[in-house]
Amino acid sequence: MFPFRIPIRDWISDGVDYLVSEYAVVFDGFSEMVYFLVNNLKDGMMALHPVILIIIIAAITWYMAGWRVAVFAALGLLLSENIGLWQAFVETLALVLTAELLVMVVGLPLGVLASRRDGFNAFIRPILDLMQTMPAFVYLIPAVMFFGLGLVPGVVATFVFALPPLIRLTNLGIRQVPKELVEAADAFGATSNQKLFKVQIPVATPTIMAGVNQSIMLGLSMVVIAAMIGAGGLGADVLRGIQRLQVGQGFEAGLVVVIMAIILDRITAGFGRQQNPNE
Amino acid sequence: MSDVITVKNLFKIFGDKPERAIESLKKGKTKDQILEEDKLVVGVQNINFSVREGETFVLMGLSGSGKSTLQRLVNRLHEPTSGEIIIKGTDIVKLNEKELRDFRRNNFCGMVFQNFAILPHRTVLGNVEFGLELQGVDKEQRQEKARKIIQQVGLKGNEDSYPSQLSGGMQQRVGLARGLAVDADILLMDEAFSALDPLIRREMQDELIELQSKMKKTILFVTHDLDEAFRIGDRIAIMKDGLIVQIGSAEEIISSPADDYVRAFVEDMDRAAVLSAGTIMQPAKEIAFTGDGPRTILRKMRKHGLSGILMTDSKRDLKGYLLANELADYIQKHQKKENLTLDKSLVHEASKVDEEMALSDVINVYHESDFGPIAVVDANNRLKGVIVRGAIIAALSEGYEIDTDNVSDSEATGNEDEKQSGDKASGDKAE
After folding, report:
1. Which of B119, B129, B189 to mutate to test the interface with A (most CBs of A within 10 A)?
2. Which residues in chain A have Cβ-Cβ distances shorter than 8 Å to B163?
3. Any B CB within 8 A of A198 CB
4. Which of A68, A162, A193, A195 is deepest in the core (most CB within 10 A)?
5. What mean pLDDT do residues A187-197 have?
6. Which residue of B has its CA nearest to A273?
């Protein structure tokens, strides 16, 4: 139909090549930072006796979500230890928490910005759509080119997939703050920062926490894909099980992912509730 | 009293290039025509009014009349399209963003909203201190102030409750307290009591009136409820299609509506609750003075065909009520006496009401007085006028415009005479 072909593939390939060759220092620096975070988190948790860490996690769960979930958490974690997946559990937890930390550092300000600037919101929406729907393997390869095999591209892939819900829900949460609350602050002569930090963010917190919760859940769904490029952890065990047709081994690792997901979900959901004592 | 808020030639048009609409308005197009032809929404048009210091000024209108828009223009939550908003001598339309913010902090007690708009994540105390916190008042000081106000609005003991634990009425007290806590004197209230159920609403209105008598804030109150407007407003502006149709006190609006729209509005009002003795009274046609002799008084009464007359001293201090038949008998008895003076037994106590008294209460007094004329006095017992049956009926009859001159000159006079001679006749029979 067309006498020519739009060379998207060349643009992307050239762009990636250009970034890899010219900005290697930046990517290396980022790698260092991610390694630093993940390794410290992991080493810190591994330094504790499993029972102590289990007690700590159960205590946090108890505080945020009640004793039933805490009992479940303790039993689930003991099970992980029992079936020999404790180290994998800690590795994955470290990876997910690091990715989530980055998501929050980047996502919250962008979400706030999107809520205040319609132009920025319109600009970022298609990008978020792209991040959520572009098949992960497509950006996994450039991620490996930028950061090499291993943990870092795993964190990056998780980050890319987990970022959009936080931005979206932060944006939504702030936009949904009742108009009168903002007017009330304005009528008192509030500055824009006072409005943001004393009214909009606190009132939007339950929605923002739902965004944190969703991004953690999405992050966990990436652990297997991340393991394909050497991120290790539970994903690696699932992957090994699949590759060797060891259904039982794969199931065990998958089960531990589910246990982790439930614990993290209840903790973050609990935080959304705590902020809003009305419910 | 000086004017705190003065609004001059204010327009607010929503949409692109709003100037077009102002041109159209000047050409006499209506709000609906402008919406259709220019695709612009007229918020308010050609608004002029001022609010006096310490006054409760009510903006009254149906939804879409522009009352809330007008209120939000007064603290510039909405940007005016053209016109001036002068608050304590400053035209706030000309302020830049920072100046406006400072101006709001120093002059406005924030706003009180229909749906309360209090912060759900803060306790009662946290909400009440909010305005002070924004001003940068330090914690100890602002909490002390907040606690004081919380007590004043009757929420003591609830300082640490969250809004969701409070009833609607209590939540609105928090909203009110938040405004009152700030050291400023203009309070904006937007349908503040409309979401409350009727009994609580009434209670809150009373409370506001009471608080206001102590605090003397300048209140701009928006409502769609005419009863509420008349209850709490010192003056009321009735709005329609973004215009102010009439400004006046409750009595002025009821007794002389500016047009059919206002008339239709006030028709359903409980007129007895709004009209006061002072509005429906008429000047006494003749009064007896304490220095007058019986014969002089009787002559005065005969001249006007009165069967009874009110007596005052020379300073118009009300002294009593005299009846023509008794006076005539007395004169008969003492025919031969040259310098006849008035006997004390002839002076009856006059039925009297304060000029501020509501018509509904006047009616009770009227019953107790055996339907005789009622003297209207001011706070110092000075005679201001009289109320007769005709005036009461006229005031109560729906849609009837009370024109005091008319009432006193024709109808009421007729009624009075008729009634009094009737009284006399029945009195004679009883004797």
Report:
1. B119
2. 278
3. yes
4. A162
5. 91
6. B121
Q: DSSP labels for B61-124?
A: --TTSSHHHHHHHHTTSS--SEEEEEETTEEGGG--HHHHHHHHHHHEEEEEETTB---TTS-H
Average pLDDT over residues B200-206: 88
Q: Which residues of B touch A178 (CB under 8 A)?
A: 115, 117
Tokens read off for B273: 């609750």
Instruction: Flag whether residue B101 sits within 8 Å of chain A, measured between CB atoms.
Output: yes
Tens digit of each residue's pLDDT (9 = 90 or more) over A171-187: 999 999 999 899 999 99
A278 touches chain B (CB under 8 A): yes
Chain B contact for A174 (CB, 8 A cutoff): no
Asked if the interface predicted TM-score (ipTM) of this complex is over 0.90, the answer is no
CA atoms within 13 Å, Cβ hemisphere of A62: 9
Q: What is the pLDDT of residues B243-261, one digit of tens each?
A: 999 999 988 888 888 888 8
User: What pLDDT, in 10s, does the model give residues B111-123?
Assistant: 899 888 899 999 9
Residues 199-238 of A with CB under 8 A from B: 199, 202-203, 205
Is A9 inside a domain boundary? no
Residue of B121, B132, B182, B191 for testing the chain A interface, max A β-carbons within 10 Å:
B121
Q: Is residue A46 in a domain?
A: yes
Q: Which residues of A touch B119 (CB under 8 A)?
A: 181, 199, 202-203
Q: What is the mean pLDDT of residues B310-330?
A: 87
Domain-located, residue A73: yes
Residue A108 has pLDDT above 50, yes or no: yes
pLDDT above 70 covers a percentage of chain B that reads 91
Q: Which residues, other chains included, contact A279 with Cβ-Cβ below 8 Å and sequence gap of 6+?
A: A273, B164
Range of the domain at A35: 17-275
Is A4 within the bounds of a domain? no
Structure confidence at residue A274 (pLDDT): 58
Of the candidates B112, B127, B177, which has an alpha carbon nearest to the alpha carbon of residue A203? B127
What mean pLDDT comes out for the span B402-431? 39
Q: Inform me whether the C-beta atom of residue A244 falls under 8 Å from chain B C-beta atoms.
A: no
Check CB contact of B30 with chain A, cutoff 8 Å: no
Q: How far apart are the C-alpha atoms of B54 and B308, rounded to whole Å?
A: 43
Check if the beta carbon of residue B261 is closer than 8 Å to that of residue B240: yes
Record: contact A183-B130, CB cut-off 8 A: no
Give whole-number Cα distances, A136 to A131, A236, B382, in Å: 9, 17, 92
Chain A residues whose beta carbon lies within 8 Å of the beta carbon of residue B177: none
Residue B410 is predicted with a pLDDT of: 34
What CATH number is attached to the domain comprising A103?
1.10.3720.10
Instruction: Spell out the domains of chain B, with CATH numbers in brackets.
Output: 55-81+96-271 (3.40.50.300), 278-430 (3.10.580.10)
On the CB side of A78, CA atoms within 13 Å amount to 9
Q: Give percent of chain A above pLDDT 70.
A: 97
In total, how many domains does chain A have? Answer: 1
Residue A184 sits at the chain B interface (C-beta within 8 Å): yes
